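User: Sequence recovery, please. Input:
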């Protein structure tokens, strides 16, 4: 069924660009990177070994997503719920942004990647925040793939903040109640300039959204993989995107969102 698919040609090749159009590569892919602890446990390793391995997968998948023509990749690295984990694990996780950027930032800059972050960054340890802010600053003029890290992110908290801002604007008569539309709410969420995800991938076998981008995922195609995140490789990403492309073709002329009418 996928015989006319080929992911192996260079990105700059024209026929490949045409094929990418046919292939309906999702513009925005969001990923819940689950299964790191279980990956480690299976090998008799501490959970943190799974998180370390997970960073290598982040790098590999970012590179492959870029090569395939994905424009935005949003990665759920730390949820507002994750503070409840054992202190040693949280401490380790909070060092990962710095470690990741020390290892890969130069390569990401060469790749023309623009780093962004969404979440309550004000609650992060100062060394974590510094690393993230510096990566955002150093890549702000890059024009390639947007690599958006969801860090201390929770969808309910994001919506609560949006509602507070909107209510304040109504109180201060910057807005009237009748003007509060879906679009206004979207614009008050954390990354108003990014398109909504076209494809959500969750690895690790669980079938939940876990408070991730609930508003933005309203019309997103969902893809669940049994693989643990450290085992998710280039081929796994291509499989997810093929599944997305096949569903888009079945849609035919139907526009996204039209199923609600
Ligand atoms: C984390 C690795 C990926 C799987 C999920 C849990 C562990 C990359 C980052 C990161 C974040 C911001 C940034 C650069 C890199 C990261 C945390 C956990 C907390 F600007 N991976 N990764 N942050 N894991």
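Assistant: Recovered sequence (261 residues):
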């Amino acid at each position: 069924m996928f015989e006319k698919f080929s992911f192996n040609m260079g990105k700059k090749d024209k026929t490949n660009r045409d094929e990418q159009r046919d292939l309906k590569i999702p513009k925005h892919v969001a990923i819940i990177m689950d299964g790191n602890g279980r990956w480690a446990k299976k090998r008799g390793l501490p959970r943190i070994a799974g998180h370390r391995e997970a960073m290598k997968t982040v790098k590999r998948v970012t590179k492959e997503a870029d090569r395939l023509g994905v424009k935005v990749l949003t990665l759920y690295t730390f949820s507002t719920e994750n503070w409840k984990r054992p202190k040693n694990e949280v401490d380790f996780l909070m060092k990962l942004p710095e470690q990741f950027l020390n290892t890969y930032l130069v390569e990401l800059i060469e790749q023309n990647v623009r780093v962004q972050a969404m979440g309550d960054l004000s609650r992060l340890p100062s060394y974590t925040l510094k690393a993230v802010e510096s990566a955002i600053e150093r890549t702000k003029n890059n024009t390639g793939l947007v690599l958006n890290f969801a860090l201390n992110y929770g969808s309910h908290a994001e919506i609560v903040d949006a509602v507070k801002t909107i209510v304040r604007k109504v109180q201060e008569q910057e807005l009237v109640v009748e003007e509060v539309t879906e679009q206004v709410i979207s614009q008050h969420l954390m990354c108003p300039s990014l398109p909504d995800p076209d494809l959500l991938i969750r690895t690790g076998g669980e079938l939940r959204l876990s408070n991730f981008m609930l508003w933005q995922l309203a019309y997103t195609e969902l893809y669940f993989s049994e693989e643990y995140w450290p085992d998710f490789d280039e081929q796994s990403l291509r499989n997810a995107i093929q599944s997305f492309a096949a569903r888009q073709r079945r849609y035919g002329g139907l526009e996204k969102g039209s199923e609600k009418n």
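The pocket of V07 is lined by residues 33, 36, 51, 54-55, 58, 77-78, 93, 96-97, 100-101, 115, 117, 132, 135, 149, 151, 229 (CB under 6 Å).
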